[in-house]
Design brief:
The protein is mainly beta. Helix content is about 5%, strand content about 35%. The protein is built from 2 helices and 14 strands; from the N terminus they run ββαββββββββαββββ. The strands form 2 sheets. Strands 1, 2, 3, 4, 5, 6, 9, 10, 11, 12, 13 and 14 form a 12-stranded mixed beta sheet that branches. A two-stranded antiparallel ribbon has the order 7-8. The two termini are about 25 Å apart.
Amino acid sequence: MRRTRPIALLAAVLLTPAIGRAQESYKAAVLSEAPPAALAGPVRETLNAQGIRVLDDQGKPYADVWLRKSIPATDKPSGPKGPILFPFLQEGELLGAIRFLGEGHDFRDQPIVKGVYTLRYGLQPQNGDHLGASPFRDFALLVPAAKDVALAQLPQKKLFEQSAESAGTSHPAVLMLLPVAGQGAKGEPAMIRDDEKNTWGVLIPLSLAPKGSPAPVAFPLQLVVVGMATV
């Protein structure tokens, strides 16, 4: 598939992405397929029975995403807290799973081999190695399905180490998470195009279970699957 060129992130446009356009459009569709058998039983059982398929700009399947039925949250969704967009999510928590139908790439342009990976919420470390990567710290980390066999949150050190195995490098494999501005209310699969940053994100409608809340809370996010940062 045709790759996008490296880009720099601009905070001023993070909250105003545009829905995918006709030209060179990536598309999203409902995938009536159960989560892959490659996932460990305890993980697979927590995922929705159907997923979301991302089609590339040539109309070919690029990636499939399955979301967790209910994601624990420390509180109801709120606004950003400093550089953290989603402070109510817990680091190391399972968000879902992704399957690349061919070679994929993470937000650092690291190649990700064809296969199945879990998606866990993580925060970018605050150190000099990540200056310029993003003004925000929220990412989904990819962990090889064969390594992620339990539902419990992963401690940061273990999460980073296992995620790095997804890329075969010393750095975790990450996909950026961004807010969705007033989109996704219908719950239909959609792609979000950001012309300024030259990225494509798939809208993922999370179902949160805030602590102390009697009912689930729907909260859409954008998972950037095409595009990269300059680091």
